[in-house]
Amino acid sequence: MIRPNFDDIFMELAVNLAKRSHCIKKHVGAVLAKDTRIISIGYNGPPSGTHNCDEEFPVEGCARDSKGSCTLALHAEQNAILYAVKNNTSVEGSTLYVTLAPCLACARIIFSMGIERVIYMYSYAEYKGLPFDEGVEFLRKFGVEVEKYQNEFSVEDPLI
């Protein structure tokens, strides 16, 4: 039997978490791990206690801001970090596994929280039609280890 490495296990979990998203445009999942242990998980969607976009706005989704982003949703990495902090769990020194590279705003939060490593599956820039991944470049500039996940496995959800 071949034992999977932790990067594969945590990225596969992030892909499965993305399937929980209620966003009608993109499903994103995130896992925060430290010392081979999961410390928090998240997926993109509206704050807990509000409403789910696919139920409230099933055709058009929630309203968009001036940059075309959702006005209601939290990003998967934001949800994972917020849940950890809410439960008094330090994310400093952890690794973030996320299905979509962090945007610049999330990158600032990741850096500020002391997350040391980010592994992402797909490019945020390609998804948004941007010239490069601003968040990835920000993190690298300030010493956060960032890598694109290279292994392949089946992703059945077309929105991931």
From TrEMBL:
Q: Which protein are we looking at?
A: dCMP deaminase family protein
Tell me the organism. Answer: Belliella calami
Cofactor names: Zn(2+)
Reading the lineage from the top rank, the first entry is Bacteria
- Assigned protein family: Belongs to the cytidine and deoxycytidylate deaminase family.
Keyword flag Zinc: yes
Entries under InterPro entries matching the protein: APOBEC/CMP_deaminase_Zn-bd, CMP_dCMP_dom, Cytidine_deaminase-like, dCMP_deaminase-rel, Deoxycytidylate_deaminase_dom
Question: Residue limits of the CMP/dCMP-type deaminase domain?
Answer: 5-137
Which UniProt keywords are listed? Hydrolase, Metal-binding, Zinc
